[in-house]
From TrEMBL:
Cellular component terms (Gene Ontology): cytosol
Residues that bind substrate: 181, 185, 219, 238, 343, 348
Organism (species): Caloramator mitchellensis
Protein's name in the database: Glucose-6-phosphate 1-dehydrogenase
Binding site for NADP(+): 46, 88-89, 151
Family of this protein: Belongs to the glucose-6-phosphate dehydrogenase family.
GO BP term (any one): glucose metabolic process
Catalytic activity: D-glucose 6-phosphate + NADP(+) = 6-phospho-D-glucono-1,5-lactone + NADPH + H(+)
Residue ranges the record marks as coiled coil: none
Active-site annotation: 243
Domain (Glucose-6-phosphate dehydrogenase C-terminal): residue spans on this chain: 192-489
Length: 491
C-alpha cells in the first residue's frame, strides 16, 4: 500500500475527463487496494446536484469505463469518501465553503490539510482557479498543496509562460504536476527499461547503427465532441507539442545519472534543447499538414472535419501532421526522425520504429531481393509489445533469405488488462512522484519548437481537405519519407 494521505479536489468534477478517466481510475486503484484510509475526494463543478445524484452518475461511468468488473463493495468504499460541491469558479463564496468542507474532511480522514487540486477544466479556468486558491489561502509552497494540470498548457510559448507565472505564484515547481497521459502508458514507460537494461540494445542505439526513427500516433476517431477546443489547437498543438515530443525525448535521451525525477527530466530536456532550429524554408519542405475529408471508417460513413460539431465551415485547422526533424547532438547527428500523427486515418496505431542501417551490399545482398533492414518496433497501442525483425535463411533453400520476427507480446505474458495511464498518474500525484509529469522547461522548449511551425502556418493558405477519412493520410506525408528512399514502416 502506498502512503497517501490527502484530499483530492477535482475541479471539473462533472466533466468528461472525470467521468471517463478519473473516477474509473480511482475505482481501479481502490480495487487493487492502492489507496489508504486517509483519503477523500471533493468534486467541484458549476452544476447543482446532490451528493447522491453525483455519485450515481459516477457509478454509471465506473461501470462503463473501469477495467475491472463492477464490485459493489469497492464502490461503497469510494462512495463514502466522495463529496460534491457546486459553485462558479470565480465565486469567492464558493471557495470559502470549499475551505470549510475541506477542513471538516481533514478531521475525519486525518489528512492534515494536504490537498491535491486536479484541474480537469477547460484551460480558460486554470488561471482563475489558481488565483482564487491562493487568495483564499488554500495554496502555498509549504508542500501541503499540489496541483495537477491537464493539457493544453498554453496555446503557444507566450501564453504558456503567462500561465506558468500565475501557477508558480501559488505553487512551487515541485508541486506542479503537468499531466501528459502518454507518459502513463505502459509501453512508453518501458522505453527506458528497454534501452538502459539491455546491453545489446543500448550499444546499438546511435547514429552509428540506426538509419532512421519513426514515431506514429494515428487514430481512427475524429474530433468527437471537442471541436470547440480542437479547432483552435490542431494536431500540432494537440499531439506533437506534448505527447509526441515527450515520446521522442525518451527515445533519444542519454542515460540519466540516476533514476530520480530530476535526473530523468534533465536528460529529457537536453533532447528538447538539441532539436534542430526550424527555418521557414525547412518547414515548407519538411512539415506536412492535412485535414480529413468525409470518408469511411470501418464501413461507416463519417463527415469531413469542416462539418464536425463546433468546427468552422472554412476551418484551416490541421487534423494531421507529418514531419522530419533532426536531434542535433553527438548521438543522433544525421539520423532523421520521422513523425506523423492524425485523426480519422485507416487505423489506430501508436508505435516507435527504430530502423537499423543496411548491411554492406556484398555477400547475400547480391543474390537476394528479400533482405530487409533490421527494425525494432515498440508497439504502444492498441497492441502492446516489442518486435525485432531480422533476416534468416529460408528452410530448405540454399541461399534464399526471408525476414522473420521475434515478437514480445506484452498482453500474452502479463495479461491484457494493464493499468490505465490515469491510474498510474493519479497514484503518482497522490504519492508525490512527479517523474512522469513534465517540468516547466520541457514545456517551454517544446513550445519553442512548435511555435516556429504554427506561426508560419498562420500566414500561409492551404488547400484543405486533403485526405479522406479512413485513408492513410495525405499523400504529401508519403512523399516526405519516400523522397529519402524510405517508407513508413506501418501502413
Ligand atoms: C489527447 C488529445 O491528448 O490524446 C486527443 O487531445 C487524442 O485529441 C488523444 O485523441 C489520444 O490519446 P490516446 O491515449 O487515445 O492515444
Amino acid at each position: 500500500m502506498s502512503e497517501i494521505s490527502s484530499i483530492l479536489v477535482i475541479f471539473g468534477g462533472n466533466g468528461d475527463l472525470t467521468k471517463r478517466k478519473l473516477f474509473p481510475a480511482l475505482y481501479n486503484l481502490l480495487s487493487q487496494e492502492l489507496l489508504l484510509n486517509n483519503f477523500a475526494v471533493v468534486s467541484v463543478s458549476r452544476t447543482k446536484m446532490t451528493d447522491e445524484d453525483y455519485i450515481t452518475k459516477m457509478k454509471e461511468s465506473i461501470k462503463e469505463f473501469s477495467r475491472f468488473e463492477y464490485d459493489e463493495s469497492v464502490f461503497k468504499e469510494l462512495k463514502k469518501r466522495v463529496k460534491y460541491i457546486s459553485f462558479d469558479f470565480s465565486s469567492d463564496e464558493g471557495y470559502k465553503n470549499l475551505k470549510l468542507e475541506l477542513e471538516k474532511l481533514d478531521s475525519i480522514y486525518k489528512t492534515d490539510g494536504r490537498r491535491i487540486y486536479y484541474l480537469a477544466v477547460a484551460p480558460e479556468y486554470f488561471r482563475i482557479i489558481v488565483e482564487k486558491l491562493k487568495l483564499h489561502k488554500m495554496a502555498d509552497d509549504s508542500g501541503k498543496y499540489r496541483v495537477v494540470i491537464e493539457k493544453p498548457f498554453g496555446k503557444d510559448l507566450h501564453s504558456a509562460r503567462c500561465l506558468n507565472e500565475t501557477i508558480t505564484e501559488a505553487f512551487s515547481e515541485k508541486n506542479i504536476y503537468r499531466i501528459d497521459h502518454y507518459l502513463g502508458k505502459e509501453m512508453i514507460q518501458n522505453i527506458m527499461v528497454l534501452r538502459f537494461a539491455n546491453f545489446f540494445i543500448e550499444s546499438l542505439w546511435s547514429n552509428k547503427y540506426i538509419d532512421n526513427v519513426q514515431i506514429s500516433a494515428l487514430e481512427t476517431v475524429g474530433v468527437e465532441n471537442r471541436g470547440g477546443y480542437y479547432d483552435s489547437a490542431g494536431a500540432l498543438k494537440d499531439m506533437v507539442q506534448n505527447h509526441i515530443l515527450q515520446l521522442l525525448t525518451l527515445v533519444a535521451m542519454e542515460p540519466p545519472v540516476r533514476l530520480d525525477t530530476e535526473s530523468i527530466r534533465d536528460e529529457k530536456l537536453k533532447v528538447l534543447k538539441s532539436l534542430m532550429e526550424l527555418t521557414p524554408e525547412y518547414i515548407k519542405d519538411n512539415v506536412v499538414r492535412g485535414q480529413y475529408d468525409e470518408g469511411y471508417i470501418n464501413g461507416v460513413k463519417v463527415p469531413k472535419y469542416r462539418d464536425e460539431y463546433r468546427v468552422k465551415h472554412n476551418s484551416n485547422t490541421e487534423t494531421y501532421v507529418a514531419l522530419k526533424l533532426f536531434v542535433n547532438n553527438y548521438r543522433w547527428d544525421g539520423v532523421p526522425f520521422y513523425i506523423r500523427t492524425g485523426k480519422r486515418t485507416n487505423r489506430k496505431l501508436t508505435e516507435v520504429v527504430i530502423q537499423f542501417k543496411n548491411m554492406p551490399k556484398i555477400l547475400y545482398y547480391n543474390e537476394n531481393k528479400n533482405i530487409v533492414p533490421n527494425v525494432l518496433v515498440i508497439k504502444i497501442q492498441p497492441d502492446e509489445g516489442i518486435y525485432f525483425q531480422f533476416n534468416a535463411k529460408e528452410p530448405g533453400s540454399v541461399s534464399q533469405i526471408i525476414p522473420v520476427k521475434m515478437d514480445f507480446c506484452h498482453s500474452c505474458i502479463f495479461g491484457g488488462n494493464t493499468p490505465e495511464s490515469y491510474e498510474r498518474l493519479l497514484l503518482d500525484s497522490l504519492k508525490g512522484d512527479s517523474t512522469l509529469f513534465t517540468r516547466w522547461d520541457e514545456v517551454e522548449y517544446s513550445w519553442k519548437f512548435v511555435d516556429a511551425i504554427s506561426t508560419l502556418w498562420l500566414n500561409e493558405s492551404i488547400d484543405f481537405p486533403n485526405y479522406k477519412a479512413g485513408s492513410i493520410g495525405p499523400k504529401e506525408a508519403e512523399n516526405l519519407i519516400k523522397r529519402d528512399n524510405r517508407e513508413w514502416w506501418s501502413r
